[in-house]
Amino acid sequence: MNTTLHKAESRGHANYGWLDTHYTFSFANYYNPDRMQFGKLRVLNDDFVAPGMGFGTHPHDNMEIITIPLEGALEHKDSMGNTGIIKQNEIQVMSAGRGITHSEFNNNKDIPVKLLQIWVYPNKRNVEPRYDQIVLNPEERQNRLQQILSPSPQDDGVWIYQDAWFYLGNFKKEQVIEYTLNKENNGVYLFVIEGSFKIDGISLDKRDGLGIWNTAHINLAIAANSELLLMEVPM
Hints:
Blueprint: E1 2-6, E2 12-15, E3 19-23, E4 41-49, E5 54-60, E6 64-71, E7 73-78, E8 83-87, E9 90-95, E10 100-105, E11 113-120, E12 130-135, E13 145-150, E14 158-159, E15 165-171, E16 175-180, E17 186-194, E18 197-199, E19 202-204, E20 209-213, E21 217-222, E22 226-234
């Protein structure tokens, strides 16, 4: 088993006033040649959007873009005519394909939005752009992993053009769980939303990340009151 540890304080950071963000991988003005991606996982941004502010209309192409709000609500508009509000306990996905523009805005004048923005390289290029958004049942991730994304429209959660599986877990009690990878030669990137975990003797705390590959199984020792995002992606 191979691992790469990204402590929270080692991430890139930018504060634009309206947006306070931490970059796990190279993004915008943060460049680190050792932090370009993890397998097909290209972006993991930990964003804090100020009240009444947001991302203006901007383009994307040939990228799978996943948004997971942790607090607050964000309004989405795109060039396909989709509009909507995405909030905590929901997940949004866009397959940018041959090209799309969109904006995201915090319409609340008093409450900030905290969200994770994730980009994954697709396994098909120049597809018809698509958008989806679903509500997640938080009870389904109490003391276990809840699948929130997969490669299949028939599976749980949203789907993308990539052999990737994402899970959220909210653990109220201390426990150990085993995760078996869905596909050979995939890797796993773990991101600690809250609390702490141990994997193969490696300690992870809030906002730490750990990439793991060359293994078929991982064992997670989880502290009480911990929350985790697990992303399995091709290497």
